[in-house]
Amino acid sequence: MSRRRDDREDAPRSSRSRDSSSSRTRSGSGSPRAGAPRVDTVSRAEQKARTRTALIDAALDLSRTQGFSGLSLRDVARAAGIVPTAFYRHFDSLDDLGIALVEDGMRIARGISREIRRQAPKNLAEAMQILADQVDANPDQLRFVVTERYSAPAEVRRALNTEMRLLVHEMAIDLARRKDMRRWDSEELTSAANLILAIASNAVAELVQPDADEKQTIRSATDAMRMAFIGLTNWRSTEADS
């Protein structure tokens, strides 16, 4: 099978007719001049990137209704508009695709944490509103990380748990900068970060629902965070009294 044929199989079907038309136009224009840009090479790279994105989008869309563990390679390829064999030019397996989805979603999650730090909200309600705004901008990626943590295939769950631990570690470092937590040891800071992340994850899980009540979710998450921080602030004195 020729390289040209392989490229067409790798392209989403919606773009093949345009690629074929442009190929005929180029073939009638004679040989490229010396030093001319390598249009075909650039086009193949861009086409590969588009196909990879189409596979990721298809998997996110399908997993919304049937869960990632219920997907088949053939279904994902069909939804992306490519033949199943072309899938392997982008991912080694469905698990490999799932890990890519984990990485994308957790990159966004870490970005939310950093955005909250950057904006330095005056109170917890403002922090939860920043969270809600970011979820609204990236619902599918964040839906994947909060819903697939316990139901995805083992390899995907392991990748997600590893990414979660990295996020907890980053949050623990932030907490260590607080005046009332500067003397906490790493285990205590990690426990506090896990508590905060659990509340935020529950809020995300609510916000990505089709019938989500954003204002109510923000209020509930704000109250939960406030309770958590009151407990964290007084944790030392409680321990000393026991």
Topology overview:
Blueprint: H1 3-10, H2 16-27, H3 39-66, H4 73-80, H5 94-119, H6 124-137, H7 139-147, H8 154-176, H9 186-207, H10 214-233, H11 235-241
Annotation keywords:
Arc Repressor Mutant, subunit A; mainly alpha; 73% helix; 242 residues; disordered C terminus; Tetracycline Repressor, domain 2; 2 domains; disordered N terminus
- Major β-sheet, in short? none
Number of DSSP helices?
11
Annotated CATH architecture of the largest domain: Orthogonal Bundle
Order of helices and strands: HHHHHHHHHHH
Low-confidence stretches: 1-8, 14-31, 237-242
Whole-number total of structural domains: 2
Helix fraction bin:
over 70%
Overall form: elongated
Give a written overview of the molecule:
This protein is an all-alpha fold and 242 residues long. It folds into two domains: 39-91, Arc Repressor Mutant, subunit A (Orthogonal Bundle), CATH 1.10.10; 93-242, Tetracycline Repressor, domain 2 (Orthogonal Bundle), CATH 1.10.357. Helices cover 73% and strands 0% of the residues. It is built from eleven helices and no strands. It has helices spanning 3-10, 16-27, 39-66, 73-80, 94-119, 124-137, 139-147, 154-176, 186-207, 214-233, 235-241. The radius of gyration is 24 Å and the shape is elongated. It starts with a helix and ends with a helix. Residues 1-8, 14-31 and 237-242 have low confidence and may be disordered.
